[in-house]
Write a structure and sequence with these properties.
2 domains, 8-stranded mixed sheet, 15% strand
């Protein structure tokens, strides 16, 4: 199967890599020379514009920031044909995905919203893909999705918007989980005992109820440094945590833990945060490659 990938950054490159490893052909486009060069090294055929790409492929995978999706689709529309498939694999708001699916359907263009999780580990282990949209279209490209996904990490979760809705809630849960782990380790560090966080994080990952991949990453962090003196506690956010809280308010569903984790992130950017928010920032870097600020001497 042949597909085009628009956006060849860290995630787009990883998706291209897995597709190629799975025997598929990838045509790619990115505005940035370095991303284009890196993609060519893994076997992507890089083109200069979307018009050229549209001559080669009928499946278009968008891996761009949420605020760029509208522009990319607008640029594509004069060149795509009835029956073509657009997959948005980024973190778009689910209501935007519902609207785009209906608008594109008027031109017989099929739109799938794909919540994508796995971070930088997804390249080797495969991604968790949460697909929303037309089930027949999903089935049509199933072999491509299987190549990109981790074993067991693929599902059609519902109609248009459901994929990005599921990913939004996933990210809200992620916010709360990271904050809970970080607060616990802050207590262990500055509480009533002198404790080895590297050893405790290792211990908890063997048989404990709270064992997890996040805890494995925390162990990696504490193995290198437990003081974190030169790390800023500022935590950025993608917007999905805020959308999760907004959705909870709209549906009158309490989501206080997620909401509080969002407030802590805002507080961290105002104040520089504390030991716990430093841990969250480092965990985000570990699983997603998100930048971590250093404290200037």
């Amino acid at each position: 199967m042949k597909m085009g990938i628009i956006g060849l950054g860290r995630m787009g490159n990883a998706i291209a890599f897995r597709a190629i490893e799975g025997g598929h052909e990838v045509i790619g486009f990115d505005d940035y020379l370095q991303a284009r060069s890196q993609a060519e090294k893994i076997g992507v055929t890089v083109v200069d514009n979307l018009a050229v790409m549209s001559e080669e492929v009928r499946i278009f995978w968008l891996m761009v920031p949420a605020d760029a999706v509208e522009t990319v689709i607008k640029t594509l529309r004069p060149h795509i044909k009835g029956g073509d498939i657009i997959i948005d694999g980024g973190n778009s708001k689910y209501t935007d995905s519902i609207r785009r699916a209906y608008e594109l359907a008027e031109e017989n263009i099929f739109f799938l919203d794909c919540g994508t999780s796995g971070g930088i580990q997804g390249r080797g282990q495969g991604f968790c893909l949460m697909i929303g949209g037309d089930k027949t279209t999903y089935t049509k490209i199933h072999s491509l999705l299987i190549a990109i996904a981790a074993s067991g990490g693929l599902a059609h979760v519902g109609p248009s918007g459901a994929g990005h809705y599921t990913k939004m809630i996933h990210n809200g849960i992620e916010y709360a989980l990271l904050q809970a782990y970080a607060e616990g380790f802050h207590l262990l560090k500055d509480g009533g005992f002198t404790l080895n966080l590297e050893e405790i994080s290792r211990l908890w990952n063997n048989g404990a109820i709270i064992r997890s991949w996040i805890l494995e990453l925390a162990h990696d962090i504490f193995r290198q440094d437990q003081e974190l003196r030169d790390i800023s506690g500022e935590i950025a956010e993608s917007g999905m945590g805020r959308w999760t809280v907004e959705e909870a308010v709209k549906d009158n569903i309490p989501a206080r833990v997620i909401e509080e984790s969002l407030l802590v992130r805002a507080w961290s950017r105002e104040t520089g945060g504390n030991y716990a928010t430093k841990i969250v920032a480092l965990l985000r870097h570990k699983f997603g490659g998100h930048p971590v600020k250093k404290i200037k001497e």
